[in-house]
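User: quick one
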Amino acid sequence: MARVVVDVMLKPEILDPQGQAIVRKLPQLGFEGVAAVRQGKRFEVELDGPADEAALEQVRKIAETLLANTVIEDFEVRVL
Amino acid sequence: MARVVVDVMLKPEILDPQGQAIVRKLPQLGFEGVAAVRQGKRFEVELDGPADEAALEQVRKIAETLLANTVIEDFEVRVL
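Assistant: Done. Structure below.
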């Protein structure tokens, strides 16, 4: 069983209100020195077989179809 | 400016209904060979200064306080 990670983040040009809310809260909690926070999604995909090129290509298709909204999000696929 | 990633995932023993919903949907979309999917959160934290040990320790504290619910979630911090 191979495990593949799909990281989904908002495209840089897209506003990230959740990340901004976190950054605004940090000084009130005594945390300094954080310029920005971006929030996204992380998927761990467990495959029946090996993480060969065909399997990775399928995970990319799954990410495009189901895990990411490719209009506003970018995703990266990597073997864990 | 250094960038640190905080990956937050449900603890293994915690049920992941979102991940299960994705796995159930995959065969209907023509995708085979996926045993399980776990969904979590990914944060990119941009620091004003370098990602030295003090900065990483602070990011761990931020993760414990604000980014993860440590009762049901584990998190990992790594420099990007």
